Amino acid sequence: MRIASNIAASVQQAQARERNDINRNYEKNVEKQQDNTLGRAIDKKQSDRVAQLKEDIKSGNYKVNLAATSEKMAQSLLNV
């Protein structure tokens, strides 16, 4: 009787480990899918922005804000 209960306990432990491994792998896959989806969304947004900037430059509508640009450059150089 004692041997049977030991075997049953060992089987339950093995099943619990398998479930934990399956759950961990599932969670990792879900995280990867979310990261990929987010990455694609960011890439699309950036490519849309680049396309818009190219369009604005071609049409002559893009203007560089020299004051803001020089301010940012100065802050960057001063590590502010």
Note the topology:
Blueprint lengths: L1 H58 L6 H12 L3
Distance between the first and last residues' Cα: 75 Å
The total count of helices amounts to: 2
SSE order in H/E notation? Answer: HH
Q: Using the CA coordinates, give the radius of gyration.
A: 29 Å
How much of the sequence lies in strands comes to: under 5%
Largest sheet: none
Low-confidence stretches: none
Number of extended strands: 0
Task: Work out the helicity level.
Answer: over 70%
Q: What value does the average pLDDT take?
A: 88
- Large-scale geometry: elongated
The assigned structural class equals mainly alpha
Structure description:
- By secondary structure, the chain is mainly alpha-helical.
- It is 88% helix and 0% strand.
- The chain is built from two helices and no strands.
Overview in brief:
The protein is 88% helix and 0% strand. It has helices at residues 2-59, 66-77.
Keywords:
0% strand, 2 helices, 80 residues, mainly alpha
